[in-house]
Design a protein that fits this description.
Elements: H1 2-23, H2 30-53, E1 58-59, H3 63-89, H4 95-105, H5 107-122, E2 129-130
Antiparallel strand pairs: 1-2
Amino acid sequence: MLGFATAGLLAYAADLALFTWLRGPAGLDPLTAKALSFVAGCTVAYAGNALGTYRHARVRGVRPYAVFFAVNLAGAAVQLLCLAVSHYGLGLTSQRADTVSGAVVGMAPATAVRFWGTRTLVFRSGGTVRSWTG
């Protein structure tokens, strides 16, 4: 759990920093900025989990990243829904409101979806899993 949280915190920092820059100085709309920052955060999270948390259960090929990406899309959908409701539904359009709704309010349920999916679908034991020790 600690390894997953560490990888998640690093991914969260990458996602939040990029979102803030894309939404602020780069001037992108909130959903585009969040989608782009999501891809960066997802890549950081996969690397952290594959090389750290679940290094004993790495699977071969492109499939693990594809499934990891799909699991993270489900989590991102939760965050994007919170952002869309806040920005477009409630009219809370400031950068601060976008950051709170996209990166704070939606984070708890999104993290639960990601943890379950990562552990259950991506880095599960058995099947095509190979160990670093043999």
